[in-house]
Specification:
By secondary structure, the protein is mostly beta strands. It contains one helix and 19 strands. The strands form three sheets. Strands 1, 2, 4, 5, 6, 7, 8, 14 and 17 form a nine-stranded antiparallel β-sheet that branches. It starts with a strand and ends in a 23-residue tail after the last helix. The relative contact order is 0.30.
């Protein structure tokens, strides 16, 4: 069974995504436009090395977001300050709360997989996150009801691939200096399509940038050897919505 935690009200800057604390990111939208929901998405990547300076909390992740940029479903892969972990996370801005599944330790070089699948009949998403490495196999599933505005269900129309959290020093980021999301598949309304990708950043930290390699591959790079001190420049603490793993148990995320 899944472990979930209501983390309470967060101190946030922006009232929607993209949020403070996001570094390089790629946004994928339906190339045909419209408001069809994402019905399936998946991606694979390799878990990063341990950083030289281990004091920071951050994560590469991908997720799907509602058309108003207020609700986010995301399989995350954070460095927690002493180890790498994977878990599922749900965040909403109104009312503001964040909830995590149970987590699991993963290791440098492990192959990580994530997917999100829409059940239109039940109006819910199933988020699946797994370590696919032989000898390290582990997975977690999280069921997330689609939120409503009045009597209308929201529509998760876009996907983000993100590196999140500002560290005090660049050597707190992994020495790989790149994470590559591969085998990205996105379906809108049950049809596989090539996303229309754009890239940007919110906080300009350690040259962290996203790059579209091809329609199925997103690379995010940074410079862990940079002498910049981003913690001196960005004073908004620990913004955004990525939160440390929780240890309680339950099954379905409940929304207000």
């Amino acid at each position: 069974m899944l472990g979930l935690l209501l983390s309470g009200l967060l101190s946030v800057g922006n009232a929607q995504d993209p949020a403070n604390g996001w570094l390089g990111y790629a946004l994928g939208v339906n190339p045909d436009g419209g408001d069809d929901p994402i019905t399936f998405i998946e991606a694979t990547w390799v878990n990063l090395k341990e950083p030289t300076n281990k004091n920071c909390f951050y994560s590469p992740w991908f997720g799907i977001e509602t058309s108003d940029n207020l609700n986010l479903v995301q399989p995350v892969n954070p460095w927690t300050g002493n180890q790498w972990e994977i878990y599922n996370e749900y965040f909403q801005w109104k009312p503001t709360h964040n909830e995590n599944s149970r987590s699991h330790v993963v290791y440098p070089g492990d192959v990580i997989y994530g997917s999100v699948t829409f059940d239109q009949t039940k109006q819910e998403y199933n988020m699946y996150h797994a370590d696919m490495t032989s000898g390290h196999e582990w997975s977690v599933n999280t069921t997330i009801p689609v939120q409503q505005e009045g009597t209308k269900y929201k529509s998760y129309t876009m996907t983000y691939f993100v590196f999140e959290k500002v560290c005090s020093r660049c050597n707190e980021y992994p020495p790989d200096n790149a994470v590559t999301f591969t085998n990205i598949t996105v379906e809108w309304g049950g049809t596989k399509k090539s996303p229309k990708w754009t890239t940007a950043y919110v906080d300009n930290v350690c040259d962290n940038r996203a790059k579209v390699v091809d329609e199925e591959t997103i690379e995010i790079t940074w410079n862990s050897q940079s002498q910049d001190h981003p913690g001196d420049k960005y004073k908004h603490g620990s913004p955004g919505h990525l939160t440390p793993p929780s240890k309680t148990t339950s099954e379905t995320i409940i929304h207000e």
